[in-house]
Design goal:
103 residues; mainly alpha; two-stranded antiparallel ribbon; 4 helices; 2 strands; 6% strand
Length: 103
């Protein structure tokens, strides 16, 4: 899967496993039958049909962390990204190889 970053137009190649491929194919087929699939539109939209903003997603995360009594110093989407990166790095005993995978 190739993703083009909006700000700097950098292309990133993501390797996805078969389970995710199957899920995406199912998602595309289901929405395609309903006439709702357009790969050039946001697939997850708010009630008004617009894309979710970072501020709104961060508010949802704060509410979720509060609901499940998860203590986080600064809850935001960046926190999840940072946590994921740290876990991947630590799982391979902090090797340089994992840093290359994450970059």
């Amino acid at each position: 899967m190739i993703i083009v970053e909006r700000k700097i137009k950098k292309k990133r190649c993501l390797i996805i496993n078969q389970n995710l491929r199957d899920a995406l194919a199912h998602f595309k087929a289901e929405l395609g039958e309903q006439g709702k699939f357009n790969p050039h539109e946001y697939q997850f939209r708010n009630r008004r049909g617009e894309k979710f903003t970072i501020q709104h997603l961060n508010a949802i995360l704060r509410d979720t962390f509060t609901q499940y009594r998860i203590r986080v110093q600064n809850s935001s989407s960046h926190t999840l990204r940072k946590t994921f990166g740290n876990r991947v790095w630590e799982m391979d005993r902090k090797s340089e190889r994992r840093l290359v995978y994450l970059s």
